[in-house]
Design brief:
Elements lengths: L9 H9 L3 E6 L36 H13 L7 E6 L9 H12 L4 E8 L6 H11 L3 E9 L3 H6 L6 H11 L5 E9 L6 H14 L4 E6 L2 E2 L3 H7 L8 H14 L5 E4 L9 E3 L6 H15 L15
Parallel strand pairs: 1-2, 2-3, 3-4, 4-5, 5-6, 6-8
Antiparallel strand pairs: 7-9
Cofactor: [4Fe-4S] cluster
Pfam families: Radical_SAM (PF04055), Radical_SAM_C (PF16199)
Protein name: Radical SAM protein, TIGR01212 family
């Protein structure tokens, strides 16, 4: 049984929803990003690696169905008892194509035994009505979560990291998705982006959870990776990496203002050691998680203890 945490953890949510531990199975479905291929920009996000944030996928070059079984075989080495799975189309933008292509790729994995849902990593500018209609159709068959990459609510930062979409578009996309209540939305934010202060990072979360009807949030630490455009910013002195103490303080402040019903899908992340420039302390993931819980306990805080009333933008 999971020890009670001072926040609404993803593991606890999935155990309640599905009745047991459930794997998220990461898949590379072969999509691209609109800010990489020239649709809206070139080069991609400045923090992103050539794998599109899918560096941990076991066999990204394999056919989709084969990837699924390779991933669960790998996971079963540690958790052999798990029998339920969420297919996680993780890297790049997994709705960046015609709906016929999207449907064909998704269906290669989601009909396998034990699959109870699908998580889709995407961007707010790649969800036309026909794609949302397909996701709504899927939500009648299984649990559907759309993981919307936002990263920041500040336009200057967004331009600096080459996101090539606005916060206003994100808000509009959340509204369009929530016309179908069975589709859950998880928003991604990055702490430590160039030029953003502690206060700005708190404001990113406040806007995200107060103005928008989302069901989950991922808080990422900015990992500076090799062979990224952001690497140059760092070496030229335009980027200061967060210390562990700074990060813990930021995340605890953020957790306090996130309404307690919103599921915390992540409060730190993983990066391959051989690709990580920094912060190197982030490699000690459990130490970071423990430090966050210890600080929340020291404060006597829990998620949502300082949350404001949600007022969704209409």
């Amino acid at each position: 049984m999971e020890v009670m945490k001072p926040y609404n953890s993803l593991n606890a949510y999935y155990r309640k929803l599905f009745g047991e531990k459930t794997f998220k199975v990461p898949i590379d479905a072969g999509f691209d990003c609109p800010n990489r291929d020239g649709t809206v920009a070139h080069g991609g996000c400045t923090f992103c690696t050539v794998s599109g944030s899918g560096d941990a996928i076991v066999a990204p070059e394999a056919p989709i169905r084969e990837q699924f079984y390779k991933e669960i075989d790998f996971m079963h080495r540690k958790w052999p008892e798990v029998k339920k799975y969420l297919v996680y189309f993780q890297n790049f933008t997994n709705t960046h194509d015609k709906v016929e292509v999207i449907r064909e790729r998704y269906e290669q994995a989601i009909n396998e035994p034990g699959v109870v849902g699908i998580n889709i990593g995407t961007r707010p500018d790649c969800l036309p009505d026909e794609t949302i209609d397909y996701l709504a159709e899927l939500s009648e068959r299984m649990h559907v979560t759309v993981e919307l990459g936002l990263q920041t609510t500040y336009e200057a930062t967004s331009q600096l990291i080459n996101r090539a979409h606005s916060y206003e578009l994100y808000v509009e996309t959340v509204q369009r998705l929530r016309k179908f209540p069975k589709i859950e939305i998880v928003s991604h934010l990055i702490n430590g982006l160039p030029g953003e202060t502690h206060e700005m990072m708190i404001e990113n979360v406040r806007r995200c959870v107060t103005d928008n009807d989302i069901q989950g949030i991922k808080l990422h630490l900015l990992h500076l990776m090799t062979n990224t455009r952001m690497q140059r910013d760092y070496h030229e002195g335009r980027l200061q990496l967060l210390s562990q103490d700074e990060y813990v303080s930021i995340v605890c402040d953020q957790l306090e203002i996130i309404p307690k019903h919103i599921v915390i899908h992540r409060i730190t992340g993983d990066a391959p050691r051989d690709m990580l420039i920094g912060p190197m302390w982030s490699l000690n993931k459990w130490e970071v998680l423990n430090a966050i819980e210890q600080e929340m306990n020291r404060r006597g805080s829990v998620q949502g203890c300082k949350a404001k009333e949600q007022r969704f933008i209409c």
